[in-house]
Backbone:
């Protein structure tokens, strides 16, 4: 396994389901991308609802919810400012609109840390802590920052979100299963989605896979 998650997980990658391992193994030298298509059930809280209406402009969170929402996820390995990175572009298609939730994951080999630059422009940054549980990839968020003019301002305590993503493969259904939850200690649930999808590889099209963020420095 290559790619940014393999660099962080090291020997733990041996315990991942092989299909999950391949899904996260993309590197900038690969000539293909992975495209998943399926359906997601989407929930969201109500206390932060007004703020969610402003986030779709940045390809971040969104206010809609629903069941069996058509879902597409595209992942690709890229190089950003001399570092290996992984682009993840998620699209949720509702009856009247399509919402995007994009991220760029970068590995800092000097400090053995993963950073997720969220949304268009990567203005929200989260440290990631991946681990393996019973062949499932579990990713939890850690420290978080707001990136302003190249400076990283920490989000502390009640301002930060708690993030957990679980990604596995269901052999009995020949499908991937993903569950994601974003919560906050003050307002509770912000957004969650869960569902399954199939995946295939496609030729790389860099015009549609440009990174939403191009960080030249990383948080301290």
Residues:
């Amino acid at each position: 396994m290559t790619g940014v998650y393999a660099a962080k997980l090291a020997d733990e990658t041996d315990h991942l389901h092989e299909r999950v391992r391949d899904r996260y193994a993309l590197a900038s030298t690969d000539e293909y991308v992975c495209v998943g298509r399926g359906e997601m059930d989407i929930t969201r809280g109500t206390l932060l609802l007004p703020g969610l209406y402003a986030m779709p402009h940045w390809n971040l969170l969104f206010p809609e919810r629903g069941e069996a929402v058509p879902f597409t996820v595209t992942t690709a390995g890229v190089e950003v400012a001399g570092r290996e990175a992984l682009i993840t572009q998620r699209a949720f298609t509702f009856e009247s609109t399509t919402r995007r939730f994009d991220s760029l994951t970068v590995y800092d080999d000097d400090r053995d840390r993963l950073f997720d630059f969220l949304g268009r422009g990567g203005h929200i940054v989260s440290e990631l802590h991946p681990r393996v549980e019973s062949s499932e990839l579990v990713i939890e968020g850690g420290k978080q920052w707001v990136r302003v003019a190249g400076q990283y301002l920490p989000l502390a305590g009640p301002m930060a979100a708690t993030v957990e993503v679980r990604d596995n493969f269901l052999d009995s259904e020949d499908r991937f299963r993903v569950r994601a939850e974003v919560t906050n200690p003050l307002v509770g649930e912000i957004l969650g989605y869960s569902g399954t999808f199939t995946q295939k590889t496609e030729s790389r099209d860099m015009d549609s896979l440009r990174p939403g963020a191009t960080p030249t420095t990383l948080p301290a």
Summary: Residues 163 and 182 are 5 Å apart (CA to CA). The mean pLDDT is 90. The longest strand covers residues 188-203.
